[in-house]
Amino acid sequence: MGSHYQGSPEEIRALDAYIKLSRSSEAVESQINAHLKDHALTTSQFGVLEALYHLGSMQTGQLGEKILKSSGNMTLVIDNLVKRGLVRRQRLEDDRRCVEVSLTEKGQELVEIILPAHVERVVAAFGALTPAEQTQLATLCRKLGLAQ
Question: What angle do CA 127, 26, 145 make, to 5 degrees?
Answer without folding.
Answer: 85
